[in-house]
Structure formats: C-alpha cells, structure tokens
C-alpha cells in the first residue's frame, strides 16, 4: 500500500468512485495495481479519500468474470446459494454468446415488438460506453426504455434544475464554495460520502463562511457549522418554503434579478401563504427563531451556496424538495455568480455523464428531446437509423413491468438491481419472470445469478480509455492502467459488436471515435475531443466550440430557456395511519469506507478493516423504550417486507429515526423500501421508509 514502493509505471487517471472526480496516480507492477496516490486535479488539488486511496484491489481480484457465461439447460434462475458458478453456467466464446443474444433479441422483437425490451446501464462506465449503449438500444433494437442509476438517486435534482433553469446539473465548480459567504448543506453526510468536497466546505467555514447544516441525523461536518438544523425527515420543502416566505415578508429578496431573469414569481408567492414560521416549526421541528436567522444569513450574507445529496432527492416528493431550493436561490439572486449557486453532489463517478449523453427515456444526448421532430431528423440523419417513436420507461418502471410480464427482456450493465432497487423481493420476482436477461458486469452479482447470459466487462476505470463527467460538469479522462482479465471487454465494444450482429453498423471503432460522434450530435460537447482533453485537462460543459474554454459557472449570461422559472411546490403532510403502524423513519445511507452495494470496495482488505458492518443505528432512549439491548438482533418490518438487523446504540440519530446502509448482503435494507416512487422521476424514497421493530424472541 505504500506509494514509495517502486512501480514499473505510474499512470494518472480519474478515481472510479464518487462524483468528485479526484485525479489519482496508480503504481503498476507486473500488470497489477500496487498503490494509489492523489494527483493534482481542479476538483481535488491532490487530495484523495480512503476509497480512492485503498479501493483499487477489486481490479486484481481472482473473482473477476473472465469469460462469457451461458446458463446451463434446465437450471432455474435464482440465487447460486453456494453452488460454484460453473455448475450453473458454462463458458462460451464471444462469437457464440453474441449470436445467442442477437437471435433472442430478434425473436422477442418479432413476438412482442421493441417496447418489450429495456436496458439499464451503469454510471460507473465511461461516457463513451454509455453513449454507445443508448445508441445501440435506440438504433439497433428500437427501444427508448433505457436508463441509468440517476433514477435511483439524483434524477429529482436533474429534472428540477433542467425544468426551472435549463440544465440538469450543478451550477458552479466545487472549489467555488471557497468564495461563498453562506453555505447551506442539506440532506448530505458529505464527510462520509464526498470527503474531499467536505474538506473545501470545512476550509470555507474556517475562513469565516456561515455554514448551516440541515439533516435529520447529526453529521461530523456539523462541528464546523454555525447552525445545525435537525429536521424531521421528509419536511425539507416546508423549511425552505417558510424561509422563502420570511425573506419576502422582510423585503430581503432580489427584486432586480427577479424582474430581469425570472417568471412565475407572483403565482409562487401566492402559493407560500400556508408556509408560516409557526407551521414550519411545528412540522419540521426546527425552532422558528433559527429558521429566521438562517433565512437572514442566506438572503443577506451573499454570495450563498446550497449543496445537497440524496437526503433531499430520495423521497416521494424529491422534485418538490429540490424545487424549493431552486426557488430560494432565484428569490435571492444566488445563481450565476461566483460563490452563489446550486450544487447537487453526484454519488457515482459518472452519473452526471450518464444523463448528459442521453441514457434516459425521451432524452437524446445533450438533453435534446426525442419527440422534437427537428431533433429526430438530425439524429436519424447522423446515426443512419430510425429512432423509437415512443418515450420509454425508467428503470424502476421497467422492473415493475417485468414483474407484470410486460417487459420480456432486460439488458443490465454494471448494476446490481436486486440490492440497489427498492423492494428487493419484487425485483427478484421480476428478473425470474423475464424471457431473457443479459447481465454485463465485472463480478458475479446477486442480479447476475438470475441471468441467461453473463458477459465479462473490463473495468471502465482502470481497463478502458474514455471520460467521466464529475459533479461539476467536468469531463476528465480515465486511462487504461492494466489489461482486462481473460476475455473481458470494454462495455462499448460489446454494444458495437452486438449491433453488427443485428445488422446495424454503429460507425464507432474505438472510444475516441465515440467521443467524435458525441461532439457531432450534442452542441454542449461540440468543442470536446480526447485530443483536447489530453492537451488541456478536464473541461466543464457546455463547450460549444473548440475555442471555448468550457463553462465554469452556468447562467452567468442569462438562462438558456429565456427566463428561469419559479415552481409552485406543495407538501402532502404526514400519513398518520402509516406513522402509527410504523413509528420509525428509516434512513438508508452510506458509510465512508464502502461504496453502494460494495461490489468493489468489499474486495479491499484495507477498507474491510474499517467498515461499520450490517447494523441499524438507534437512539439509546428509543432502545430503552423498546427494551432493546446494544447488539441485539431485532426484526424490522415495513409495508414492503422485513429483515433481521443487529441494533447499534447511536446518539447521532434522534428519537424516532433509524439509520442503516445498503452496503452489506447480510442486511438487505432495500427489502424494506416500498416501490412508492416520485411521480415525475420514479425515484424511490430510500430516505424515509416507515418501519416498526419487533423483538425476535418476544
Ligand atoms: Fe474518489 Fe470520491 Fe474519494 Fe475523490 S472523494 S478519492 S473521487 S471516492
């Protein structure tokens, strides 16, 4: 693990984990990664967190998939349950497996049409591979049911930002937080999830910025804050709407900005009548004097920045929460200036890029609408194909449709859906009902155990060349560090070859060629190329021409849709019946040393030493009231399912709130999350699942 151990070569690339996009150097010896250390990049300035530093062992793992696998005849789909992989699947060549997939696709198209096929792509992959996937699905198969993990996390951010401002992305560079005088961090434990960004926020607070933390559980970052608002889960929209109303009542809003750049102000102001300070105090649990003071700081101590992660978005009303933040920024003119902006912090290395390159239903690369006739004409001409004539489904909808027998084939790339989607039992049922399931991944996962064929992928981060887009819209190169194991292939290669088998030549020879194709069809990428990124380093889109330096701060010269829009938001109240039956609010989050379903991080001996384990954190007073001892195993029950969990006493969670993660297979927390989705983005409510507790031996 020591970066002074001599390496055969040192390669600089981009960290494969979170959306910060830290630059990292890997030391390579005998074609294996032997260490990692921080390299200078605009987002990290040489820093790395523990995952970036010690999370690379998965690349060298002997458990990597190395050959295409085909399910043996007569073996039913489902968990391996300890059986060796080769009892259930047989090895095949790429030629054989691609022929089988192509013939199955043709059969399903003949029987049911293109709407019966859907694809879920990994945001861990490169922009180039994700772009190739959506082109393959749309042109070679003819379906628009394509999605990536944003639906499970930040799609409410992307949707509200795009609808109200123009682009579904963060407005400012990460480092710009150092120019803010007031910073609100809401629904984010960034010290654990984005430690390098948290370091900038701490630095800003030490320099004198007013730091305000809004979260239902205590976070370490709050030690640097002037105010910590322990908000009742699911009530963010009330807090931020009450702040807005108070700012208006006090006359602290930016009248010139509103009249010059926005629309819908009057209607929105009228909609705020109900959000009084008394109401907000009662609903959110935050004292009204604190709400007043935080509103004053945000409106008057400018420039002000709002940063958030999934504590805002993973709710049934996630789009309302994000819109409430955008409304507040527009009200006070905190957009389009240094230090002032809206910063959703993206969780996956390339979840921003996945949406940018068009892997979402109805959205072609560069956020161009599929149903716009002029856009369609242009794309069909360049891509030489007929685009789907229907808007497809999001991943959560696809799983539901598979369960109901309406989708017959899924192509899942690098997503462990059984662990990452809500209602794990329903996902398993959906996967077993499919006529054909293709899974492409770097390891055998719980989801791959249901597959008809499993394709071995090269790791996008270390075994392929391309780009990732970080949380500040910066495209950065990821370089090939080592060769993929066995017959594993880059994701884009598989889509290009499969398209060829189906009779469609995608016209893409390699990753650099794909970037050229992206720049041809999407104006936000027009000035980008691999050559330029090699020469100049990462650039933030929009990059409209080769002479453009990229866009540091969005909306500095106005809004692409003409005027920014205030959006009326509402709060639907508490469901008192559900709250009585299920008195605890369970928050499913993350911990610093693990990443999502831990497919990669669990392979690191260093990260395994410091993991917290499959526990549910509970306030000691609640434990006393329920007669539960520290370490006791209890049953958690929700309207969707039940799991056994070991309780850990924790004072960071307040009474009535429980916290766990979805990192551990021993505690399938998402089993508890009902598939209650945001009506617009179909995002699940991982951050406020109602549960009750039963003692196991009662
Ligand atoms: Fe990697 Fe994110 Fe950690 Fe940076 S902060 S090293 S990008 S996991």
TrEMBL record:
The keyword Phosphoprotein does not apply. It comes from the Archaea. One of its GO terms (cellular component) is membrane. Residues 8-63 form the 4Fe-4S Mo/W bis-MGD-type domain. GO terms for biological process: formate metabolic process; respiratory electron transport chain. One of its GO terms (molecular function) is formate dehydrogenase (NAD+) activity. Keywords: 4Fe-4S, Iron, Iron-sulfur, Metal-binding, Oxidoreductase, Repeat. In the C-terminal section; belongs to the prokaryotic molybdopterin-containing oxidoreductase family. This is Formate dehydrogenase, alpha subunit. It comes from Vulcanisaeta moutnovskia (strain 768-28). The lineage of its organism: Archaea, Thermoproteota, Thermoprotei, Thermoproteales, Thermoproteaceae. The chain holds residues 200 to 897 of 897 of the full protein.
